[in-house]
Amino acid sequence: MKPEPLVPPVKVRDIAKPTPALSPLDLQKIVPLPPPYDQIDPQTLWKELTAERRQEIDASLDGVSALSLKRPEDPQEEERLLKGFVEGLRKLLSVENNWTFLQPLQLTLDHCTHCQTCADACPIFVMSGRNEIYRPTYRADVLRRLVARYGNGGNPIKSALTGPIELNWETLARLAELSYRCTLCRRCAQACPIGVDNGLVTHELRKLFSQELGIAATECHANGSMLQLRVGSSTGMTPAVVRDNIEFIDEEMSEKVGFTVKTPFDKVGADVLLLHNAGEILAWPENPGAFAVILEAAGISWTMSSDLVAYDAINYGLWYDDVQFARVALEHIKVAKKLKVKKIVIGECGHAHKALTVIADRLLLGEDNIPRESALTFLEGIVNSGVLKLDPSRNDFPVTLHDPCNIVRAMGIVEPQRRILRRIAPRFREMTPHGVENYCCGGGSGFAIMSPNNFANWRMLVSGRIKMQQILEAFKDELDPAIPKYLCTPCSNCKGQFRDLLRAYGAWERSRILYGGLVELVVNAMADVPPGFLEWEFH
Amino acid sequence: MLASGHVVVLQEGPMTVATIGCVVLLAGFVLGSLYKAVRYVRMPMHVRWELYPVAHEKGKVSYGGSYFEELDWWTKPRETSLVGEVKTIAEEVFTLKAVREHNPKLWLPSLLFHYGLYLLFLLGAALLLGGVADGLGVVGLGWLGGGKVLSLWGVVALGLATLGCCLLLLRRLGDPTLRNASSPADFLHLWWLLAVFALSWANWLVVDREYTVAAGFVKGLLRLQVGGSVPALFVAQVLLLGAFLAYLPWSHMTHMFAKYFTWHSVRWDDAPNIAGEAYREKALKLLMLPVSWSAPHIKGDGKKTWLDVVQERGES
Ligand code: SF4
Ligand code: SF4
Hints:
A: Fumarate Reductase Iron-sulfur Protein, Chain B, domain 2; globular; B: 12 helices
């Protein structure tokens, strides 16, 4: 695609300009989808905020609001926020408050040459029609300039060399919003010849806002990690409700597969503690159900936990707050220790994979460092053991695979899921690009659970659009709705995004594209299970 | 004194200024670089933040796989290969792979520029080695094949660097989006280098086609020889280049060294904390650091430690 500069191009320093919208989404420039989806007018997927709503909240970045920020009521309040932000900058660059990410952050702040090699790797920037504010370097440069001018008392020479910037309410509010226009997919970091990581900048900005000013997406914080720590799960499910739901799922599964499926809870000394994203239990019960079927059939010694927090693998702190992250990770480990399991297996949830296996790793000392394994690797072990009789002809329909960023680009788990698919899905085909070069589903970093104001519309039109393009390309010769197709997506968060995305583009009605996990396909191929485990119903 | 026998069009400048200036500026470069490197080295252990492909993963790097693909990975020996890292870095340094793949328009200018700089660096190193060798009474610059070879080397190196620099500057100025996304420092660096190259050309053309003045100067520098004189043009070149080098550690141009950290210590740092012991001491020390983040769910007061706050539940 030809670069088409905006006229006049939005400059980094413009972030402080008191205009109604710094750089609104231009629907004319949204990159078209392949036919027949090119007929869908972006306008039909878009929702303009009403004038009334725009009075209530700040949508002055791009006409979208993820955070529903309210303007400060008086100059004192504004002053307090701005001072807090400057304090936050100091803390972000201090060993005491940010040892967790200080070295990678400082390296990133110090070394960008503005070569723009990362720009085209960013699906949000590209699919928006190259809106300057979504350029991976834009938010990083705002931060660089703010650090140079205000960080630790400011440095006039550094500031002059970095470029002008003003800190006012507009800058603060827009930068907070801008930290929720990036899915942390880190494709840009992969492309950078120097190793600068603009995804990390987003992460660190979110942390500054959350940890210093208490500004975070409600879905991630108040209704996310805070709820999980208080009630046990961000779904609001209490232990009793989880047990009830799982019992119900077990009954359903037993009926479908023709043998008794019973999920063990709190079994001390089990080999495996299985952690599910609790959202699966409510939204896609067939996924924990299929896990239970496979583990039962394979004779694995396993358990789930009914302890608060531990029946929900999610750890939203990964996306925005180190303290919340550590609080949840420690609860997960505490329960695994209590149950004396040999290993924790993390179900089909990408961010939970990365949170507990990678990010928490160096914080888990001594006996807290219980081995953690991906469900995909674990599943491949079961499949390879030959304990399940698999009949690939049961999956004789087109299948493609989505690579969740957190499992693939951030953990290098690329092949196990493919080796399973090659074995059980004869019509499996890859998306382009795939593996570690995949595109995010567009719901990464919490977006899939966020739909305030018109944010869901933005998710469909911008952050998820490239994935939609990829899915259609993967199935391009078989888009006919008479052919059922399966988008295999072994991540709960991605599934949430796909539910919204496929629905928004009418892909189920138009092309009969269903999405679901990997375990469902495995059970669908099990010769000992009556055919038709997969129900071709969109939900 | 002019060694090349060309028509002298410039006044001679004092060697003292060049020598002292050069020593001070080079010291600035060395100290600045050390300061920056030590600063990164002394930063505390960070949490893992690797990004695949990780170049040292043996047998899996071609598709970006990791040891997490192995069942019960913690029970298996970790197979890493330094060759993988060296190969990836070498590919990046010598072919600018990432730019070629993701930013083709910038690739050729960037490649010319970088090769020019590599050759100029080697020329500087050769002059230095020649100076040392001569100082030791071993052999002069003769081992390099004489002035003609050096002259050709210089012209190729300068040619590539100047062409690359001009093309980069033209792209930055001519492409409105690239221009818009540039910082004042990005332009400063290119203009400054261009000025250094211009002076170098002038020296080469007028004063020192076979680098004999430069070689003599380096020899004098190594002996901290003050007094005497060299052409003013040469002094100007030395001072402008020295100033650039002294400034370099404070700029993003340290990316050539920073790659060790950004790639090796961040992007490829996938070393697992097996059995929770490997990082025990470091982590314990860091968890005892005071927290002062002020949000209601943390309320860090500068006294509570990380260990304290992560065990609390916090207010909404
Ligand atoms: S982040 Fe890397 S690729 Fe992007 S502009 Fe900066 S140096 Fe270039
Ligand atoms: S992390 Fe992903 S979404 Fe964010 S700027 Fe980089 S490429 Fe774009």
